[in-house]
Design brief:
Elements lengths: L6 H10 L21 E9 L2 E8 L8 E5 L19 H13 L4 E8 L8 E12 L2 H13 L4 E5 L11 E8 L7 E5 L8 E2 H8 L3 E4 L3 E2 L2 E2 L3 E3 L2 E4 L5 E7 L4 E15 L2 E5 L1 E2 L5 E5 L11 E8 L3 E5 L9 E8 L5 E8 L8 E6 L1 H9 L6 E8 L13 E4 L3 E4 L2 E2 L16 H8 L4 E7 L4 E6 L12 H10 L2 E6 L8 E3 L3 E2 L11 E2 L2 E5 L5
Parallel strand pairs: 18-21
Antiparallel strand pairs: 1-2, 2-7, 3-5, 3-6, 4-5, 7-30, 8-35, 9-34, 10-32, 10-35, 11-12, 13-14, 13-26, 15-16, 15-26, 16-17, 16-25, 19-20, 21-24, 22-23, 22-24, 27-28, 27-31, 29-30, 29-31, 32-33
Pfam families: NAGPA, SPOR
GO molecular function, one term: hydrolase activity, acting on glycosyl bonds
Keywords: Glycosidase, Hydrolase, Signal
């Protein structure tokens, strides 16, 4: 269903006092629901820090539970194990015909992808669905019959298809005005990078006023470029968006980043594949040298490389074990040990370099005990300018970009949120469909906007597509904005109230790789 305007988001901007002009609507406004935004509460967290919660939109008579039937990657492949959520029209027609032969009444629906800054709008694929029910239990019962007949699939709520801009939403906006607020925004990850922590524990343990989830995390560690207080702690997903904090965490900006780390041994040098991650596993892809199946960013896809050099710093914690070679360096870069297996602890102030595959041979040839190894770290912004990594520099790479220079701007391909290849299930489920989202932005007055929208909760809050997330941030007044980790990770908390949103996981808030914390100024 392609319907509604974004007038409710304009109303949201009005409630928050954002000085933005109302844009032209996306489609004809439907008169069936109010477009008003209802402010359910605004609290002052600290002078210059406010938390506003709003209820937007409302349920529609057309919102229904349905059975979504999977399609096979191979058009002639088996249907009982099919895993694609959408595919070519011919494949969808074949599955629909098979369903009709089994006594069902399927419908074939087109899924369109909106225009992004680097991709035109168009048809993403075709889905096959059966039934429309007000009650999820009815759709679940039909799904059991569908599976018993030799098909695969699941249930879906149509309000979460990402096409309804006036679906029910619960929105939580933390606004920091540094003209009044004398504190900072900073990152934290707990005792070690190699491990996860709950946001409420980090808020309580650090004396923070509030916090929100931050980066993606894989193998219990943050994924993407992570620079904290000038120290490069995480590998870049080359070209993805990032949040840069300076002025002691009181100034923020959005850009895209690449990073390269060179290991030098005498006159020889080699590029390091990663920093503080499991060797051979490149989550989100976008790495350097020999990664398969691609070196382009691909969100939530694990690329692999059988020959890698990975640096570990003391912040990591317990290092990965396994076959390969390992050099242990002291604080001056002198090699104190060379091991023919991996897993040594990282010396205080020093580092280790783990190597697998052919890279292990390079390390054995160049890292003799007593020799000195050095690292050259180069972080570049979107214009190719080198970013000085000073103690006042923090960068969190997440993505995609949502707003740049005051305009909606989603670099969908370059940020890796459109999957390469024929199977566009990920693109459909993560990018096009509605999900819980966490976002961060800066408005024209330099105020910071930290936003969480709940999702996957039928009739309460459906969530947003990436396109609607971008438009929402613009309507809230963001001049620059970026998407943070989302889904079940989306969580916001304050010291006074605890968790303020409704995380979508049935078990509540997740343990996270790292977080963003609003901290008061330290007592002098």
């Amino acid at each position: 269903m392609q319907r509604r305007s974004l007038s409710l988001m304009v109303a949201a901007a009005t409630v928050l006092g954002a000085a933005t002009a109302a844009p032209a609507p996306l489609a004809e406004a439907a008169p069936t629901r109010s477009s008003a935004a209802t402010t359910t509460g605004t609290t002052t967290v600290a002078p210059g820090v406010t938390l506003t919660t709003m209820a937007l939109g409302g349920q529609d008579a057309d919102d229904r539970w349905t059975v979504h039937v999977n399609l096979p990657v191979d058009p002639a492949g088996p249907l009982a194990t099919a895993a694609m959520a959408l595919g070519p029209r011919a494949t969808a027609d074949r599955v629909a015909a098979a369903l009709r032969d089994s006594g069902f009444a399927p419908r074939v629906e087109e899924v369109r992808i909106p225009a992004y800054a680097d991709r035109r709008a168009g048809t993403l694929g075709w889905t096959v669905r059966i039934g429309r029910y007000a009650d999820a239990a009815d759709a679940t019962a039909l799904l059991a019959r569908v599976k018993a007949s030799g098909f695969a699939g699941g249930t879906r709520y149509t309000a979460q298809d990402g096409t309804d801009s006036r679906a029910p939403q619960k929105l939580h906006v933390l606004r920091l005005d540094f003209r009044t607020f004398d504190g900072t925004l900073e990152t934290n990850y707990g005792p070690a990078l190699n491990g996860t922590e709950k946001l409420t524990d980090l808020v309580a343990g650090t004396g923070a006023l509030a916090g929100v989830n931050a980066q993606w995390f894989y193998n219990s560690a943050p994924g993407g470029l992570y620079v904290k207080d000038g120290r490069l702690l995480g590998s870049a997903t080359q070209g993805r968006a990032g949040l840069k904090l300076t002025r002691g965490g009181r100034s923020a900006g959005i850009d895209t980043y690449t990073a390269h780390v060179t290991l030098r041994a005498g006159t020889d040098s080699v590029e390091i594949d990663g920093v503080n991650r499991v060797p051979g596993e490149i989550w989100n892809c976008g790495g350097v040298g020999g990664d398969l199946p691609t070196q382009k960013p691909q969100h939530d896809l694990k690329c692999t490389d059988s020959s890698e050099l990975v640096r570990f710093t003391p912040e990591w914690g317990r290092t990965p074990t396994g076959a390969g070679t390992e050099a242990v360096l002291d604080a001056n870069g002198l090699v104190t040990a060379v091991n023919t297996s991996r897993g040594a602890g990282v010396p205080a102030g020093g580092s280790t370099v783990q190597a697998i595959g052919e890279s292990a041979d390079w390390l054995l040839r160049h890292a003799a005990v007593g020799t000195k190894l050095t690292f050259d770290e180069r972080v570049l912004d979107g214009r190719g300018r080198r970013v000085r990594l000073t103690p006042d520099t923090t960068i969190l790479q997440v993505g995609p970009t949502l707003v740049r220079d005051g305009k909606v701007s989603v670099n969908a391909r370059r940020d890796g949120i459109i999957r390469e290849g024929a199977d566009q299930t990920f693109t459909y489920n993560w990018t096009v469909r509605a999900n819980p989202r966490s976002m961060i932005g800066v408005d024209d007055r330099g105020r910071l906007l930290v936003v969480v929208v709940d999702g996957r909760q039928a009739g309460y809050s459906e969530g947003l597509s990436i396109a609607d997330a971008a438009r929402l941030m613009r309507r809230l007044g963001a001049r620059e904005a970026m998407n943070l980790d989302g889904g079940g990770s989306s969580v916001m908390a304050t010291a006074a109230s605890g968790i303020v949103n409704r995380p979508s996981d049935a078990t509540g808030q997740r343990s996270l790789g790292n977080v963003l914390l609003v901290r008061p100024r330290p007592a002098s």
